[in-house]
């Protein structure tokens, strides 16, 4: 079992990669006719970022890169409760680090103004890419987070090949973003939402609660349903379950 410290470093690095690549596909795309809103390109960027990080790191340390996935695995009895706070803290720090690097790169474009930019932040109402209101954002984030966590749990089962699971999880995230991007700018990950919100401040922080509450509700529901349908797995070393007990 790899030490907690090493696993936290990997969680932070993987989350930073996910945020930098995914949000970078929005923020740095200044040459597009509608900067930042090429839905297919952004969805693929997030999906491929998750797939590559998972392929690279899952075999060594497990890979969540998302507080919702961590909580969902804990509810499903596939992750130790004692590691929840350290994992989520590492994911938030990683997201902030990825956003900081992105802000530095974006500042090199003439005319870029961080204060005036939405910087890939998640929002609803006037800050939704297509002006979707609160109830729409809440439902899309809850449902899509449920789907992501359930897919991650199913892909973590012993019978699933480790060479297939990262690709499936990346494809699942890409499909989720294809649907969610026009509604909320694509979240289903509170760490991903927190990084840009801290840099934008103002409205992004005011609306951040939704992008914690709705995804967490979906993740908890997915974890509870998985535990109900498949039962509590046998614990292995370090309090995780099975050889994929931490992979997400």
Can you walk through the features of this model?
The protein is mainly alpha-helical and 248 residues long. It has a single domain, classed as Glycerol uptake facilitator protein (Up-down Bundle). The chain is built from nine helices and no strands. Helix 2 packs antiparallel against helix 6 and helix 5 packs parallel to helix 9. The longest helix has 24 residues. The two termini are 17 Å apart. The relative contact order is 0.20. The C terminus is likely disordered.
How is this fold's topology laid out?
Layout: H1 4-27, H2 39-61, H3 67-75, H4 84-106, H5 134-155, H6 165-184, H7 190-200, H8 202-207, H9 210-230
Helix pairs in contact: 1-2, 1-4, 2-6, 3-4, 3-5, 3-9, 4-7, 5-6, 5-9
Secondary structure: helix percent: 55-70%
Shape summary:
globular
Averaged pLDDT: 87
Q: Which value, in Å, is the CA radius of gyration?
A: 17 Å
Quantity of strands, as a count: 0
Find the CATH superfamily.
Glycerol uptake facilitator protein
CATH architectural designation? Up-down Bundle
In this structure, how is the largest beta sheet organized? none
Output the CATH topology: Glycerol uptake facilitator protein
- SSE pattern, N- to C-terminal: HHHHHHHHH
**How many angstroms separate the termini?**
17 Å
Count of distinct structural domains = 1
Supply the number of helical segments. 9
Structural class: mainly alpha
Strand content: under 5%
CATH C-level category: Mainly Alpha
Uncertain stretches = 32-36, 234-248
């Amino acid at each position: 079992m790899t030490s907690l410290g090493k696993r936290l470093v990997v969680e932070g690095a993987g989350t930073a990669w996910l945020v930098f690549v995914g949000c970078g596909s929005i923020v740095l795309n200044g040459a597009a006719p509608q900067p930042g809103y090429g839905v297919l390109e952004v969805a693929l960027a997030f999906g491929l970022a998750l797939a590559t990080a998972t392929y690279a790191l899952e075999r060594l340390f497990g890979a969540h890169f998302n507080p919702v996935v961590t909580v969902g695995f804990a509810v499903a009895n596939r992750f130790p409760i004692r590691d929840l706070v350290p994992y989520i803290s590492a994911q938030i720090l990683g997201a902030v680090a990825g956003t900081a690097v992105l802000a530095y790169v974006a500042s090199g474009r003439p005319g870029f103004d961080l204060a005036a930019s939405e910087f890939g932040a998640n929002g609803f109402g006037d800050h939704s890419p297509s002006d979707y209101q609160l109830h729409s954002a809440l439902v899309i984030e809850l449902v899509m987070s449920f789907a992501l966590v359930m897919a991650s749990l199913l892909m973590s089962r012993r019978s699933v090949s480790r060479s297939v699971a990262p690709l499936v999880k990346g494809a699942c995230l890409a499909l989720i973003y294809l649907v969610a991007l026009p509604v909320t700018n694509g979240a289903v990950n509170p760490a991903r939402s927190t990084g840009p919100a801290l840099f934008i401040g103002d409205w992004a922080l005011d609306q951040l609660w939704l992008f914690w509450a709705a995804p967490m509700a979906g993740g908890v529901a997915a974890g509870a349903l998985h535990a109900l349908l498949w039962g509590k797995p046998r614990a292995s070393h370090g309090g995780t379950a099975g050889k994929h007990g931490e992979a997400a």
